[in-house]
Design brief:
Number of domains: 1
Number of strands: 0
Number of helices: 10
Radius of gyration: 16 Å
Largest sheet: none
Order of helices and strands: HHHHHHHHHH
Shape: globular
Oligomer: single chain
Distance between the termini: 30 Å
Mean pLDDT: 81
């Protein structure tokens, strides 16, 4: 039952990410952490999300804001190099608590153009802090949302550019956790997740074009808040 379950989860979460530009990675990481050891979950999540985000970036390629990617790359690589000597496997409770807190922090911060991802300094900072979140909780999307929420970019550019930055983030995460995993996921699990992730990205991208802007804005905030509270509750239960 594990293979069809992971396939459905990959399909749904890829579509969710393509539609909202967020949340799919959180849901997928939470599901994998329930089903697999943390290092194996991190590797499988990274590979699937790399494929999903790569597909989304290609589908929406003409909307990419290329100027954001250079500073983001520098910040991500600097942070990864800085933390490489102290790599550790996070506890599942830490994963869920971080998954829960990140979107709630993103929603609580007041809007300010000073935090916009369009500013090179903020793109560099985003690369560093999002990579740190990826290596702690497996997901950095909600924290990345902080920098996009404060920008004036249209939704297609937000979804496309976030997808491109997440390709890099998940690539770093795969390299990071492959060396920490005692047992890597069965190759069949990668196959089970890869094709549904591509199909989900295509489906979500089509829905994105049909969804009214106001509805999209409300949906992103509601989904972020709901997932944050659920993940926070799960993390607190694991600590109890």
């Amino acid at each position: 039952m594990l293979i069809p379950l992971l396939g459905l989860l990959a399909l749904f979460t890829a579509a969710l990410s393509a539609l909202l530009g967020m949340a799919g990675g959180m849901v997928f990481m939470a599901g994998l952490t329930l089903l697999l050891p943390v290092p194996a979950a991190m590797v499988l999540h990274g590979a699937t999300q790399l494929i999903s985000n790569g597909s989304r970036a290609l589908l929406l390629g003409r909307h990419l804001r290329a100027a954001v990617l250079g500073p983001y790359l520098v910040g991500a690589l600097l942070l990864g190099a800085l933390l490489w000597p102290v790599r550790v496997v996070p506890d599942p409770a830490v994963v869920f608590l971080t998954l829960g807190l990140l979107p709630l922090i993103a929603l609580a911060l007041p809007r300010s153009p000073q935090l916009s991802i369009e500013r090179p300094a903020m793109a560099l900072l985003a690369g560093a802090v999002v990579t740190a979140a990826q290596l702690t909780a497996g997901v950095g999307g909600p924290l990345l949302d902080v920098f996009f929420i404060h920008s004036a970019l249209p939704r297609e550019e937000i979804v496309a550019t976030k997808a491109a930055t997440q390709v890099l983030a998940h690539g770093i995460k795969i390299i990071w956790f492959v060396g920490l995993a005692e047992v890597l996921p069965d190759p069949a699990l990668f196959v089970a997740c890869a094709l549904p992730a591509v199909l989900g990205a295509a489906l979500g991208s089509r829905l994105l074009r049909a969804l009214p802007e106001a509805t999209w804005q409300r949906a992103t905030r509601a989904v972020l808040a709901g997932l944050g509270l659920l993940s926070l509750g799960r993390g607190l239960l694991l600590l109890a």
